[in-house]
Amino acid sequence: MSYKKESLENLLVLIEDICSSEENLWFKNKLTYKKPNLNNSNDDEKISEIYEFCINEILLEQANQFYRDLKYTEIKDILISDFVRMEKFKRQDNFEDFSLAANQQIECIVNHLCTHDLDFCNYIIINKNSHAYYIKEKSHKLWELILTNFKNEEDADKLFQKPLLEWDFLKRVKAVLYYFHYNKNIIYQSDFNNFYKQLEEIYQYRNKNHRGGMQFEWQKKITDKVDENKYRYYFRFMFYLENFVSKL
Length: 248
Prior knowledge:
Elements: H1 5-19, H2 25-34, H3 43-66, H4 76-91, H5 95-116, H6 118-126, E1 131-135, E2 138-141, H7 142-146, H8 153-160, H9 169-181, H10 189-210, H11 217-228, H12 230-246
Antiparallel strand pairs: 1-2
Helix pairs in contact: 3-4, 4-5, 5-9, 5-10, 5-12, 9-10, 10-11, 10-12
């Protein structure tokens, strides 16, 4: 990766200024510890290594702050690692792997909840027929929220006999949104659907590049829409991820 000379010179000035302060001595020591062989490198290599080290430290700090308030400490290290990977792919303008890393964070959280949160798992399975939302004053059951309009109660019986971790991923996502984000109380189904569709966009684009092969027409419609606005979707997918994490 090439860098403008002016940017690198400004970076060196910034690093020198940071290291000159006693309160930033930890940074100077860490830089020396991480890169002990810099004196054996040529100037261009030194600059490049310092630049990449500083970027990585910034991304790591951003990831730690992003997941600072997440209570599921068992998976924080994995999430932080995937967040850093995601941001590196963004810097490389690698939208396909950026989408994959974004979805991996959502998938990690969803799978953790469907494996370890027994209160959540039991509630969803037991309350298949409980009220979930209203449309035009008609009450709809939880299984109707989880399944599509083309399914019936017989399909629901088969699904709800399985552990949540054996459900299709997007059905698990709906269960997580219903229980954790909406606290089992959906006032506006359109709001729920919009939230769900945001996460579905990430998942479908991840599938396009992760699995390859044939897409259904409705899936292609989603990924084509993303492709047409790829640079905006870097920010949209980040917003969708933040929206999902912040409401847990």
